Amino acid sequence: MGTLGFWRLAQADPGWTAAVDPDGTQHRAGDLLARANRLVHGLRELGLKPGDGICGLAPNGADGLVLYLAALQAGWYYTPINWHLTGPEIAYIVADSEAKAFFVHPRYASEGARAAEAIAPERRFLLGTGEGGAVAAFRPMAELTAGRPDTLPEGRTAGTTMHYTSGTTGKPKGVKRPLSGLDPDDAAELMSFLPGLFGITPGQPNAHLVTSPNYHTAVTQFGGTALHMGHTLVYMDKWDAEETLKLCERHRITNSHLVPTHFKRLLALPEEVRNSYDLSSLRWMIHAAAPCPIPVKWAMFEWWGECIYEYYAATEGGGTLATPEGWKSHPGTVGSAWPISELLIVDDAGEPVPTGSPGTIYMKMLGATFEYKGDPAKTAENRLKDFFTVGDIGYLDADGFLYLCDRKADMIISGGTNIYPAEIENEIMIHPKVADVAVFGVPDEEWGEQIKAVVEPAPGVAAGPELVAEILGSLEGRLARMKWPKTIDFIDEMPREPNGKLLKRKLRAPYWEGHDRAI
Fold it and tell me: Do the beta carbons of residue 255 and residue 285 sit within 8 Å?
């Protein structure tokens, strides 16, 4: 131990460019270190102790990175919040995580202010500077950090992130891991094991392109670890295909984390645009989060060469890795188990199935323990001995390579983002003109899946465009727009069993005819 970890590296070389904001602003490692140190001193004066948590509602860039770096050297849990959420949804996470401080960027001050009642006024802070009525709910960040020392705090201990993942009830649950008690830099060095599986090397010249919102687990994991390995983080504010190519050329990007939707958009660029950028620096372009169509993957190999890696994993821990060679010899696979991870495929009775037979995928990772915060039932339900599942279906071939057949029965994956129908159904069901509702994913050429709602109108209510508009209008301010159904169809009677169980597969099947998604 002793060669990696942001805080260690920043002290050794404060002039290294550690981060580049979407607007091009460059941040030296020494400056980020000083900001993170001042924040720790300020929050300790506010009473924060190891084991406490903080929440951040911040766009991609250095502001959110400073929150992460402060928490991870002070023994705190850091929860980055999805900025597409509405005030009540944000408030739920702030309250449920028992956050002792809540940081909001001016860009999200409106919804952030609606969530502010979830935490005491003296514990709400506005990142940077901002004006406007909504900002009055927050203290300026300077009140916390001004005049505080920029020296390394005493008694440093490793913190971690606590990301929220939705449960079957539609309410998100925090995936909480025990704190390690390690020195923060030593803990950061241990994190480099995962990128090491891909062959990623530490130090300069290396640059990691952050293509997706920082509230995603994988984005935090891969971006944070790249930083701890001495790479420069280059942030995108909003993903754009040609802008990706421009940034790769300008910053000599060596590694990134992508989703198949990105590939489809990149391949849709005119050939002259695709060929006009120097992408020779690319070495480890990693993708996950949704199934990648085999022809799309082949096309990316033809364009970018042997730098495309794939993995399958979950916030909870464990996973598989497909190297370029591994995938090409087993097209369609999501890879074989990490050296510290194990896979188990079982039938409905929990018994292992033969090679090549589909079953529920269970995983475990050496030393990884977690609980769904505040939900011991969900924690227990997803376990089989010391393995866990997220409900996906797949099979292993004779070489130990995993193939996915289906995803969580009901989860919608749109553009690489997980969307949980139960939460949407709960909001639509409130509408007085709705008797019953089912929400599921249907095929979408660009996004993989789009959100479809099927509604049984209340007795005497006419189905039609007016009712669609009314239902969607009722979601305003209660449900993030990314979760709104793209289309709503109507049905006379919802197919339910006598025990009330909805036969969602019956509803979904016609929409998937002719497509390769397992029903």
Answer: yes
Rounded to 10 degrees, what is the CA torsion of 177, 233, 227, 27? -110
| pLDDT value of position 138 | 95
> d(Cα 104, Cα 92) in Å, to the nearest integer?
15
Give the residue among 418, 411, 422, 361 at the shortest CA–CA distance from 388.
361
C-alpha span between 26 and 178 (Å, rounded): 34
pTM: 0.80
Tell me: pLDDT of 192 over 80: yes
pLDDT at 498 over 60: no
- Tell me: pLDDT of 423 over 90: no
**Cis peptide bond N-terminal to 354, omega within 30:** no
- Cα(222)–Cα(349) distance, rounded to whole angstroms? 36
Q: What distance in Å separates the CA atoms of residue 267 and residue 390, rounded to the nearest whole number?
A: 31
Confidence of residue 408 (pLDDT cuts 50, 70, 90): low
DSSP category for residue 105: -
Scan for tokens 């090491």, then name that residue: 196
Domains in the chain, start-ordered, CATH in brackets?
1-174 (3.40.50.12780), 192-313 (3.40.50.980), 339-406 (2.30.38.10), 412-512 (3.30.300.30)
CB 63 within 8 A of CB 237: no
The DSSP H or E segment spanning 493 is none
Biggest CA-to-CA distance, the chain = 73
What pLDDT is recorded for position 448? 85
DSSP 3-state assignment of 421?
helix
Q: Is pLDDT larger for residue 270 or for residue 392?
A: 270
Question: Residue 349 and residue 492: Cα distance in Å, rounded?
Answer: 36
Phi, psi for 334 (deg, rounded to 5): -105, 10
Contact, 163 vs 315, CB < 8 A? Answer: yes
Helices and strands of the chain, counted as H and E runs:
18, 29
- The three-state secondary structure class of 87 is helix
List beta partners, residue 453: 439, 488
**Any residues with CB less than 8 A from the CB of 213 and at least 6 apart, and which?**
60, 82, 83, 219
- Tokens at residue 388, please? 């866990």
Average pLDDT, rounded, for the chain: 90
**77-106 residues labelled b (16+ CB within 10 A) or e (exposed):** bbbbbbbbbbbebbbbbbebbebbbbbbbb
Euclidean distance between CA atoms 485 and 472, whole angstroms: 8
**CA angle (234, 238, 241) in 5-degree steps:** 85
Taking CA atoms, 462 is separated from 387, 469, 491, in Å, by: 49, 13, 11
- For residues 302-320, give the mean pLDDT: 89
**What are the pLDDT digits (tens) for 109-151?**
999 999 999 999 999 999 985 444 568 899 999 999 999 999 9
Range scoring the smallest mean pLDDT among 90-99, 175-184, 382-391: 382-391
